[in-house]
Predict the structure of Inositol 2-dehydrogenase.
Amino acid sequence: ENLRVAVIGAGRMGADHIHRLHTRIHGAEVAAVVDIDLDRAQAAIAEIPGAKAYATAAEAYESGDVNAVLIATPGFLHEAALLEALERDIPILCEKPLTPDAASAWKIVEAEQKLGRQRIQVGFMRRFDAEYAALGGMVRSGELGELLMLHCRHRNPDTPPGFTNEMLINDSVVHEFDVIRYLTGEEITSVQVRLGKATSKAPSGQHDPQHVLIDTASGVLVDVEIFVNAQFGYEVATQAAFEDGIVDIGADAGPYVRRAGRWGGQVTPSFIERFGTAYDVEVQSWVDAALRGEIGGPSAWDGYATAACCEAGVEAQKSGERVAVVLNEKPALYAGGAPRAA
Ligand code: ISE
């Protein structure tokens, strides 16, 4: 039978996933949307006959119409939503971060272990981006020799209301933490954050940009420019330095236009456009695996490991010191590692 999905959170990401599930994903349908703002919930399912809006997840689960859940609320609300979903023992796709810190993420890992099988896939969609997947293949094939360094640029035009200084790390750089683990196949061992001259375009409380220095277990040197009030548009790009070559991904694409004595093209406006196809591949991978009783991407362990990196990063923001990332023992449930994107 198809997945009948309850989408929790009808904000920008939830509404985009609802549209995706309804129009592009096969094997699943939107049965319910959950949001405390019922008007927003209703608006998100206006085009979906039969879908119902609820103020709480419990009501959606009790309706009997739901056999899977996509959690798209802000990260600080994920712990309660995940524990409630695990109680129902149904397939779960949880938008990143799993939770914002290591202790709460570990609670989720323990709860899933108690269930005895993996139900949680975490929404690190970059693993499903064609260029990141291809770069991962080059690392694994060894065709360019050993990977030595990664230079990451993560630029957002601006931030939504309530975006805190800590969220530069646990909501934005969290993607780099996961994709570094995915590309290298290793854990991250330390994080350092450098603060310099700040843009006047940042809302109060944010120090933007920041330069994040990251080491992996084998010593791959990573630097991340996180710049979330960059104004010009959205850019997520990575340059990988191997022993025998350099690989750049994330360059602007699209028509090169010459008109009225000028040339140019369009910069992607947001992650919705930059990673639209990656989200489609990610959600389809989740649905296909869930219909087999499996997960189709990053696991709760990946969510925990990145949460531990985020915690170290937030500490490093404050101290200016290089902070070690300390992980609990990886439970046997996750021994096989996250399935790799096709
Ligand atoms: C946002 O939540 C995302 O997931 C985007 O991919 C990322 O670029 C942005 O910085 C995050 O806040």
